[in-house]
Write a structure and sequence with these properties.
The chain has a three-stranded antiparallel beta sheet with strand order 1-3-2, with helices on one face. 6% of the residues are buried. The longest helix is centred in the middle third of the chain and has 23 residues. The protein is elongated and about 80 Å long. It contains eight helices and three strands, in the order H-H-E-H-E-E-H-H-H-H-H. The protein is mainly alpha-helical.
Length: 235
C-alpha cells in the first residue's frame, strides 16, 4: 500500500522542476490580455529526453498554453517554444470597444488564471526525486563518521577524531605510495630479459563463478558444480 501511494504521488525530476519554474515565471509575467503587446514566447533548447518531453506536453495542456517543437534559432538549434493561447508575435490592431466581446475575454482570463493557480499549487508542493535533503545527507555523513571511528580504532588502534594520529596515518600512506613509485619505476635492463607465458584453456562461465563466489552463495551455480565446490573446500 505504501509503495502504491508513493507511485501515485506527484514527483518531479530536477530538469522537470527547472522547466516548471521557467514556465511559471513566463506565465506570471505575461497576463492574459490579448490586446496588449507582451513577450511573444518562451524558448528552450530541445535537448530533452522522452520523459521531459512528455512532461512539457502535459504541463502545457494543464496551463492552457501552446507548445511548438519545430522552430530553430540562428544556430539551427531546435527549440521548444511556449506561447499563451491566441497570442500573436505582433501587437494586435486597435479594436472598437463596442465591437469587442468583452465577456469572452473576461471568461478566458478567469479560466487562465484559475489554471495557473491550480497547477502552481500542485507542482510547487511536488518533491524532486534523486535529491537528498540536508537532514538525510547529514544523517548519512554522521553514520559514515561513526563507522570510520570504529574501523580505525579496531584495526589500527588510533582515534579518528585525533588530528595528530590521522595526520601520521596519512603521512605513512603517502610514504607507502612513494615507495611503490620508486620501486616499480626503477626497473632496469628490461630490454635484455625475455618473458614467456604459456597459454591455457579459458575457464568456463560456471568455473569462473566457482573461483569468486563464497560458499554461502553456491545456490547460484548448478548442483553438480556445488558438489565439486564442497569437495574442493574439504580437501
Amino acid at each position: 500500500m505504501e509503495l502504491a501511494r508513493m507511485r501515485a504521488k506527484l514527483v518531479l525530476t530536477r530538469p522537470q522542476r527547472d522547466i516548471f519554474d521557467q514556465v511559471q515565471q513566463f506565465v506570471l509575467q505575461n497576463p492574459r490580455k490579448p490586446s496588449q503587446h507582451r513577450t511573444a514566447a518562451l524558448t528552450m533548447p530541445n535537448t530533452f529526453p522522452a520523459r521531459e518531453r512528455k512532461f512539457i506536453s502535459t504541463l502545457a495542456e494543464e496551463l492552457h498554453l501552446s507548445v511548438t517543437w519545430d522552430e530553430c534559432d540562428e544556430e539551427d538549434q531546435n527549440l521548444v517554444t511556449w506561447r499563451l493561447p491566441g497570442f500573436l508575435d505582433e501587437p494586435l490592431a486597435e479594436t472598437d470597444p463596442e465591437q469587442a466581446n468583452g465577456d469572452n475575454v473576461e471568461e478566458d482570463d478567469d479560466e487562465g488564471r484559475a489554471a495557473v493557480d491550480r497547477v502552481s499549487k500542485k507542482f510547487d508542493k511536488a518533491p524532486v526525486v534523486g535529491v537528498f535533503d540536508a537532514r538525510h545527507e547529514q544523517s548519512i555523513n554522521d553514520k559514515m563518521s561513526e563507522w570510520k571511528r570504529g574501523y580505525y580504532k579496531e584495526k589500527l588502534g588510533i582515534s579518528y577524531d585525533d588530528p595528530k594520529e590521522m595526520d601520521d596515518l596519512i603521512y605513512r600512506y603517502a610514504e607507502g605510495l612513494q615507495w611503490g613509485m620508486h620501486h616499480y619505476y626503477n626497473l632496469r635492463d628490461l630490454g635484455d630479459k625475455s618473458f614467456m607465458f604459456e597459454l591455457c584453456k579459458p575457464f568456463r562461465p560456471f568455473e569462473q563463478l566457482m573461483g569468486v563466489l563464497p560458499s554461502a552463495s553456491m545456490e547460484h551455480i548448478p548442483i553438480a558444480y556445488q558438489v565439486c565446490s564442497v569437495a574442493c573446500v574439504m580437501h
